[in-house]
Amino acid sequence: MADSRLLVGLCLSLLISSLAISLVTGTGAASLGDIGGAVNQNIDFETDTHGWKNDIFTIGSDWKITDGALTSQSPGSNRFFLQTGGKPDGMHTATYHIESGGRPYAVIIRDTGYFGDSIQLRVVPAGVYLESYEILGYRPFQKFIPASIPNTAVVTVTLDESTSRVTVTVDGNVIIRNEEVPADGILSWGTVYYGGITAESPGFRVTKIVSDAEAFDEQSFDLLGFISSLSGVLVWYTSSGVPLVDAFINLIIKIQQLGIALVIITIIRGN
After folding, report:
1. Helix and strand element counts for the chain (H, E)
2. Where are the alpha helices (DSSP H) in the chain?
3. How many CB atoms lie within 10 A of CB 172?
4. Please, are residues 11 and 230 in contact by the beta-carbon 8 Å criterion?
5. N or C end of the chain: which has fewer CB within 10 A?
């Protein structure tokens, strides 16, 4: 166990050293490769009865799989967020297969933890409200769009963070196109969620969610892959083009690489 911890420590030391060197020389750092894959979310609640808990954060609300759908349970507000992160291009698209049964609900577009720049699509009988959250009756942004939203509907919401614009389709028909919303401001400090649902009563059902936001897929340990990545760390080297600096870099790198190699040999020998 001690040898394993020493191996991990030496690898981390080399990775940190290589990162610092790469910042100075402008070259790439050493890497152990990916430990998980960035994947799109595709959650079918009829077949996924347990794994969805890795993709959805219910924040104390009571949601259960009932008859092939994620179903709200509480008489009050039921909310969940998609467990996704930001994307380099700023484009976030999520599609929800909804069976509301006429119950009021809202699709979360962006939740920052601050009411002023959190955005939702709230569905009412006469249409939808594209709006921010409210506090003490105050809502800094709201726009009403007349529309007929069926109780059973496929709702797709796209947020372009680079322009702070939203597009919404219902059953393939565009009801909102490139509508400007408040940008993510400096007053929001918490985790930002790009997607989710708020239902105001029990019995609200979501049968499927598809999102292009990146989530990290857990992968089983691959020994050959780890050995391949580790060998890449052991042979990593870079050059600044200055002989004296290169000699110093070589000293820093090779000492750590030699230590890693010796620990590996010790682990293999079992001594």
Report:
1. 3, 15
2. 2-25, 223-234, 243-269
3. 7
4. yes
5. N
Sign of CA dihedral 214, 157, 193, 75: negative
**Rounded CA separation 110/117 (Å):** 8
HSE-up of residue 75 (Cα within 13 Å, Cβ side): 0
Q: For 72-112, how does the pLDDT look when each residue is reduced to its tens digit (9 = 90+)?
A: 998 888 999 988 766 677 889 999 999 999 999 999 999 98
List the single range of 37-46, 139-148, 165-174, 229-238 with lowest mean pLDDT. 229-238
- The domain locations on the chain are 2-34+220-269, 37-218
**Topology (CATH) of 37-218:** Jelly Rolls (2.60.120)
What does the alpha-carbon distance between residue 153 and residue 158 come to, in Å, rounded to a whole number? Answer: 16
Q: What SS3 state is found at 136? A: coil
Beta bridge partners of 145: 128
Cα dihedral 174, 94, 189, 52 sign = positive
pLDDT of residue 73: 92
Q: How far apart are CA 122 and CA 102, in angstroms?
A: 13
